[in-house]
Amino acid sequence: MNPDELRKRHAAALPEWIALYYERPMELVRGEGFRVWDSEGNEYLDFFGGVVTTISGHAVPEIVEAVQEQAAKIFHSSTLYLIENQVKLAEKLISLSPISGDQKVFFVGSGSEANEAALLFATQYRNSSEIVALRGSYHGGSFGTMGTTGQSSWRPTPRSALDVSYAMTPHRSYSPLYGPFEGDPEGFARACAEDVRRVIETTTTGRVAAFIAEPIQGVGGFIEIPPGYFERVKEILDEYDVLLISDEVQTAFGRTGSHFWGIEASGVEPDLITMAKGLGNGLAIGAVMGRAEVIDSISPNLHISTFGGNPISAAGALANINYILENDLQRNADEVGGYLKERLLKMAEKHGIVGEVRGRGLMLAIEIVGPDGDPDPPGAARFMEACRERGVLVGKGGIKANAVRVSPPLTVTREAAEEAANAFEEALAEIGTREKVG
Hints:
Blueprint: H1 3-13, E1 28-32, E2 35-38, E3 43-46, H2 49-52, H3 61-71, H4 84-96, E4 103-108, H5 111-126, E5 130-134, H6 143-146, E6 163-167, H7 185-203, E7 210-213, E8 216-217, E9 223-224, H8 229-239, E10 243-247, E11 272-275, E12 286-291, H9 292-295, H10 311-326, H11 329-350, E13 354-360, E14 363-368, H12 377-389, E15 392-393, E16 395-397, E17 403-406, H13 414-437
Parallel strand pairs: 3-15, 5-6, 5-7, 7-10, 10-11
Antiparallel strand pairs: 1-2, 2-3, 4-12, 8-9, 11-12, 13-14, 14-17, 16-17
């Protein structure tokens, strides 16, 4: 369908606040691997992956066959009955878990639901409504998770279902302390970790249920938490018997390259891990995995998920996990992501509009800034348009919406990464020239 006509129908039938990328929004109608095509026949490199979701790529035969085979048997049955695919998927995830001891998995339909469930389990287990989160965090679009998110643009109301306090994120975007520690990242990380203790001691009753954090902040602009931070935070949490929830909705399943789970880079063992997005490679599924005693702590019927772990989503997710492992996509993310980040760092040296390059594996960000070094959201939007013109799709994020997010499927090749990097180089040169003229 003509995208202009579809846009008019979209505006008439759907909420006006639903955001669409680009000055002239597109409809993607076909995908294959890490490439997609729009309704007008234009081909693109998909370097956003459905908002960090299409982790194995589009139309992967092994995943498609698993879904088709299950769909031909039964679409839905309800979690009130036994579901073999659900059990197999839970067992597979537990076998890959960085958490020791007895574990359970609870399936839901999205990342927001996964974080809601994790917060429910933690507050019930600890008999406390108090949560500590990080500034700049994003944990979902439901009422409870929005109330735990550390960004005003995602907080429609000051009300929250929980009593939430926010600790300093160890990144210059959020901390006035960054200056004295610019030459000492480890010292800065330790100082921000100690802020967690101060938050517990001064803004809570001292009986906090959980600390929730993303190993790399996703919507916050792919902000990586520096080494040493989680290690020290975990020591502090253990002093107060506070649970650690690792929000892996965007960082799980090898996307960071160095590890299968994002939290593993710190060597810290969380109590609960939440996941979604890459778990289903586009299928609607999420989960909470963690210590059995925590997940089993709620009363019967206190929580249920109608579509969590349904036969089709569970079959597709299991095939997806197996595909990631059998094809060693984590290693590919590390190698191709390493090459791409190196290219981006060289661009940063050349182009003044790049304020920072950050991230790991195939979860990378380019921060676009103005001549004075301040965030430049319009510049980021222009960069995205310039990339689209060159056949590459990317995303954006950050508190100021000036961070370009790069997160292609983990199947992406070095050749495709080189093609994308060349497009980025040209786009930066074009935007930089406009900035100087402006």
